[in-house]
Amino acid sequence: GARNVARLARSTAEATPEPIEDPTAPATDPGTESHEIRPGEEPVGSEDFPTAGGDLFLADVEVSTGEVGRSAVFTFEGADTLDWEAEFVDEALQQGSGEPVDMGNAEQILKVTVSGLRYPEPGEDVISDVDASGAEDMTIVVDPPFEGMSVLFIGVTHTEFASIEVIEEEAQTLLSVTF
């Protein structure tokens, strides 16, 4: 009866060993996603790209040059999931119009298309041209939201690959690109 089921459940729980973690396995955070892409490779991105609409808004862009390389961190405020796709392109072109985007002296251009965005509220600043003076030989242009999507163009003078990391936090998502 019920007494036997309780005894069986208790003895099973006591007999179940704790999983042993592999100390050589890379540490992964369930809210973090990482990818690498090289010029000439097929696009990489999130599984659900593209998604229509959302509540995310590009609030900040920080650039730097450090030990790991040149990086740009895009901060999106909001609770929705940021979906994205990245690829190296020969030329930066605006969404909709197809007009060329001035990328300065960039020799290689990483195009990151993000979805899950909302239109800005009245009075909110829309980030378009980014002061990338904190990162050596980097040009960043943001094509503003259109139909829930925005394009981030990141130009550099030379790179072997780009590392892209997406970190989801409670009320914001960070998209970090390092060359």
Question: Please, could you describe this protein's structure?
Answer:
With 179 residues, this protein is mostly beta strands. The protein is 8% helix and 42% strand. It contains 1 helix and 11 strands. It has one helix at 2-15, and strands at 32-37, 44-45, 57-66, 69-77, 83-89, 108-115, 129-130, 138-146, 149-156, 162-168, 172-178. The strands form 2 sheets. Strands 2-5-6-9-8-7 form a 6-stranded antiparallel sheet, with no helix packed on it. A 5-stranded antiparallel sheet has the order 1-10-11-4-3, with no helix packed on it. A hairpin with a 3-residue loop joins strand 10 and strand 11 (172-178). The radius of gyration is 21 Å and the shape is globular. The termini are far apart. The model is unreliable at 1-28 (pLDDT under 50).
